[in-house]
From TrEMBL:
Listed GO MF terms: double-stranded DNA binding; transcription coregulator activity
Gene Ontology terms describing biological process: regulation of transcription by RNA polymerase II
GO cellular component, one term: nucleus
Protein name: Uncharacterized protein
Species this protein is from: Pinus taeda
Length: 163
């Protein structure tokens, strides 16, 4: 995370020409707790917070998911290339499983559990994105009951693979 003085700043997506191509939102930089505060924090509370975020993320990905639409017809339009791009992200799946199996002997159990949770959430996110491409109603713009979307929750969990 880049260092920034605390305060509110405008936040928006820009195109290659640096012009705003999204809605402008306000983002607030907050004071980072000192290392002593972080080191003194309860690890169990952090684990609970992470697990609650993972549950919210999984719940959002299952929200209104129609299991009957598990097979995605390829569109003739622009979404076909988007579908192909998302499908290509899952090609290393077998290697991830093998690496996870090997690492369980060498890594702490909690780390292996986290790897498994991320793998399952990653696969579910890709399936959900493929499903949302063909969803003519809302697309991927769905928020959970606390007003956060899939990218918000993935970012809060530190899942850079979702970005």
């Amino acid at each position: 995370t880049p260092h920034h003085t605390p305060g509110r700043v405008p936040f928006y997506v820009t195109c290659s020409n640096r012009l705003a191509c999204s809605e402008v939102r306000e983002f607030e930089y907050r004071m980072c707790p000192s290392w002593e505060m972080v080191a003194g924090s309860n690890a169990d509370n952090e684990a609970v917070d992470d697990m609650l975020l993972q549950i919210r993320f999984a719940k959002l990905l299952y929200l209104n998911f129609n299991k009957a639409q598990i097979y995605f017809p390829l569109d003739e339009g622009g979404s076909c290339s988007l579908q192909n791009m998302i499908c290509s992200l899952t090609k290393d799946g077998d290697e991830e499983w093998l690496e996870m199996e090997r690492s369980i002997k060498d890594s702490p159990f909690d780390k292996s559990r986290e790897q498994l949770m991320q793998k399952l959430l990653k696969e579910k996110l890709y399936t959900w994105l493929l499903w949302k491409i063909n969803d003519k109603e809302k697309g991927p713009n769905i928020l959970d009951n606390k007003g956060q979307g899939a990218l918000h929750l993935a970012a809060a969990l530190g899942y850079d693979w979702a970005m």
